[in-house]
Amino acid sequence: MAIAPESIDEIKSQVNVYDVISQYLPLEKVGSSYRALCPFHPEKTPSFYVSPQKNIWKCFGCGKSGSAITFVMEYEGLSFSEALIKIAEKQGIKLKFIGKDKFQENKKYYQLLELVSKFYQQQLRTSPKARKYLSERNILPSTIDKFNIGYSPEDDSFIKWIEKNNINKEDLVKIGVISSVESKKDKFSGRIIFPIKNLQGKIVGFGGRSIEPHKSPKYLNSPETQIYKKSEILYGLYESKD
Ligand SMILES: [Zn+2]
Q: What's the 22 CA to ligand 1 centre distance in angstroms?
């Protein structure tokens, strides 16, 4: 059994660091933050700060910092999963679990989407047309790198690539990249590709913006899959964390 990805995301987005840490330490309000004596190094004046707004904690004495989850891991000496279970219990969140088979299957899909994303990024690097499209819209190379933006060519290079690398077409259907095992193109051909990530930073699907004027719809997103539940993912949420 493993904790379902949507439950991990729920804890990360719903649980406030203040609610968790205040159960362990007496927190004193200072401005918009709270402080306490650091539990991780000896000190006489408090340098351990909790910011409910930023949803992080940081000690200016020993330099440690993190989230509610890392605090509980560190304080209680727990693993990531154990800390999640503890927090969920205390905050009254019901965790969903998935079996080991499904966990392994999800892992395979994440790896495959990562691989496909790398292919799209590589295609963007070698496509003057796609690069021109982005530069005309003032999308900087740093933005392209940060969001792992890619491009899917209109020709048959995707199918050639998956055949050359022996990638299982049924898996690609399951993660919503091709329509069927007979497909001659991926669903996103002729589009600029924006990977959609969950809160753990794993790619769960793609958004594609057409650069061909005749092509509709203008925007196309991956369908819902075993690992991509649209109600649980907001585009750019992972990148906007820092
Ligand atoms: Zn400290």
A: 16
Of 190 and 235, the structure prediction assigns the larger pLDDT to 190
| Cα distances (Å, whole numbers) of residue 60 to 18, 20, 73, 77 | 17, 20, 19, 21
Q: Domain with 32 in it: what CATH number?
A: 3.90.580.10
Q: Which of 46, 76, 97 is the last residue of a domain?
A: 97
Residue 161 neighbours by CB under 8 Å, 6+ apart: 119, 167
Q: Are residues 80 and 113 in the same domain?
A: no
Q: 79: CA distance to ligand 1 center in Å?
A: 20
Distance 119 CA to ligand 1 centre (A): 43
Instruction: Give the CATH number, domain containing residue 142.
Output: 3.90.980.10
Q: What is the ipTM of this complex?
A: 0.99
70 alpha carbon, distance to own chain's centre: 18
Give residue 242's pLDDT.
45
> For the chain, what is the domain count?
2
Residues 167-225: tens digit of each pLDDT: 999 999 999 999 999 999 999 999 999 999 988 889 999 999 999 888 789 999 999 99
Range of the domain at 194: 99-241
